[in-house]
Amino acid sequence: MTAMDDPGSNAPRYMALAETLRARIAAGDPDVGEQLPTEHALCERYAVSRHTVREALRLLAEAGLIARRRGAGTVVVAREARQSFAQRLGGVDDLMQYARDAQLTALSTEVRALDPAVARAMGVNVNGDYLHVHGLRGEPDRPAIALTDVYIRADLAPPVETYVDMGGAITEWIAREKSVPTARIEQTISAGALTEAEAEALGADAGEAALRTRRRYFDKGGRIIALSDSVHPADRFTYEMVLKSEAES
Amino acid sequence: MTAMDDPGSNAPRYMALAETLRARIAAGDPDVGEQLPTEHALCERYAVSRHTVREALRLLAEAGLIARRRGAGTVVVAREARQSFAQRLGGVDDLMQYARDAQLTALSTEVRALDPAVARAMGVNVNGDYLHVHGLRGEPDRPAIALTDVYIRADLAPPVETYVDMGGAITEWIAREKSVPTARIEQTISAGALTEAEAEALGADAGEAALRTRRRYFDKGGRIIALSDSVHPADRFTYEMVLKSEAES
DNA sequence: AAGTGGTCTAGACCACTGG
DNA sequence: CAGTGGTCTAGACCACTTA
After folding, report:
1. What are the domain boundaries of chain B?
2. pLDDT tens per residue across span A144-169
3. Are the Cβ atoms of A244 and B85 closer than 8 angstroms?
4. Which residues on neighbouring strands pair with residue B105, listed in sequence order?
5. Using CB atoms, which residue from A89, A239, A245 is nearest to B190?
6. Between 20 and 30 A from A197 (CA), which of A24, A59, A63, B188?
7. Which SS3 state, helix, strand or coil, does residue B238 take?
8. Could you tell me where the beta strands, DSSP code E, fall in B3-128?
9. Strand D positions with any atom < 7 Å from protein CB?
């Protein structure tokens, strides 16, 4: 009695077949690393067309249970799909989900080699020139929400006149104008106390608790595109994220 | 000269067709909200079979450019796929990416109605009984990494004997044993100073900076499964996440 | 060279949407 | 009710892997 033999089921055949195969894999019948029957064999065994078999296998492949290779066959790669969650972000701007109009106001900018101390703090080992923008982030006429340092690889950095009103979309500008899309972002979030210099720039008290976010932007080849380091006074900022289950059907 | 008319291209037809349609949508030919030609029309226009058209449309649908409804047709929902990033988590355990062996040691447990003050702090409005577990999280013989409060809806909570050695996988137990999988997790991360009670439990100093994470677990219907509230001394914990581009081809 | 999965065709029936 | 997308069949050729 498998889902395939159930005449009362109103599910499409390819779904029923997928469910049957999923149950068998969960039971370890074809165990991890072993081969699934070929598409042709499944057509015969379950008396369905190859298209139906392929739709069923597509579901299992999307669920990460099987891997398929032309000429080599289909192997089981997992007995069951772990429930998985994902935080999706529409773009780099969404990384910090505070108000859209939180503008970066530059206090200073310069192009020079990356300070070794900064590189160490950011957990990277690089050399070469970077455009360093130091500034406050927040809405006009409101207390600043963050004190931010951004380091953009010099050969990718926009001209100084340009980036001021770009908000946080610098990596999108680089993707568009320099054809270097960001492929990976690494972010660390930690707590810490405000230093005196930070407190002064932010109009807060030294020693006050603060949220510190550091981000590293990488291109497809793993090369650094940009670095950013922000300090948020505890009472002015909360990081919120929603993680959704990746289960589909 | 579209990708479809390119005879030198060695891409499959359905990919070429998808690329052609993607370019047209990007140009706003069928603008957002407008209808795409029907599958039948596309078959005629590009002289391919319906299966080929459907494979092409499947790609566009996966990219989030179009939405399809049986009987109603296909509409454009976006001119171009925004570069998008996702943090993927294999399970609830991975939410906090510190060492796997960070066990929760219960200091107290009780079942009672949720304290209104707690509900307010967690940003939820609920009633009913919850199993409240208050404890320390960390490896044995090391300073605790967090002070944690977990509130599990009473009708879903495992028997007291069970949950002790489950680590953080409580929601996975609920999904398996109670058939209530978690569909969404909302998390807020903020900074704050340790209260005296927290400092004492953690063996730290009151007023020290700390990272505070609050999580809400929801089922498919939006009902709360569990709540958790953790405080991490700043020097003992850093939250790290990797966001990968969702672009595929 | 035989067999695999990947692509493609030309049909068909169905559930559902909309006028 | 006509037309849509969803499912399904029975073929076919191809690129690729394995032996």
Report:
1. 13-76, 85-240
2. 889 999 999 999 988 766 665 554 56
3. no
4. B136
5. A239
6. B188
7. coil
8. 66-69, 73-76, 85-89, 103-113
9. 2-12, 15-18
pLDDT at B249 over 50: no
pLDDT in tens, A84-136: 777 777 665 666 554 445 677 888 889 999 999 999 989 888 888 999 989 89
- Contact flag B241-A186 (C-beta cutoff 8 Å): yes
Joined together, the tokens standing for residue A213 give: 């976010």
Q: Is the CB of B41 under 7 A from strand D?
A: yes
Q: Which of B91, B211, B247 minimises the CB distance to A84?
A: B91
Give A212 CA → C14 C1' in Å.
Answer: 57
- Assess contact for B247 and A175: CB atoms under 8 A: no
Q: How far is CA B79 from CA A209, B32, B207, in A?
A: 43, 6, 51
Neighbours of A7 (CB within 10 A): 5
Residues 6+ apart with CB under 8 A from B206: B193, B194, B195, B196, B198, B199, B200
> What is the DSSP pairing of strand B209-218 with strand B224-233?
antiparallel
B119 conformational bin, left if phi > 0, alpha if psi -120 to 50, beta if neither: alpha
0.90 surpassed by pTM: no
Cα distance between residue B186 and residue A239, in whole Å: 11
Question: What topology is assigned to B13-76 in CATH?
Answer: Arc Repressor Mutant, subunit A (1.10.10)
Bases of chain C within 7 A of a CB of the protein: 2-12, 15-18
Judged against a pLDDT cut of 90, whether residue A179 lies above it is answered with no
Q: Are B154 and B128 in contact (CB under 8 A)?
A: yes
Task: Report pLDDT for B4.
Answer: 60
Per-residue model confidence (pLDDT) at position B99: 43
Q: Which residue among A51, A182, A189 sits closest to B189, beta carbon to beta carbon?
A: A189
Give the torsion through C-alpha atoms of A50, A55, A61, A63, to 10 deg. -150
Please state, in angstroms and as integers, the Cα–Cα distance from residue B25 to each residue in A142, B1, B34, B78, B134, following that order. Answer: 41, 16, 10, 8, 54
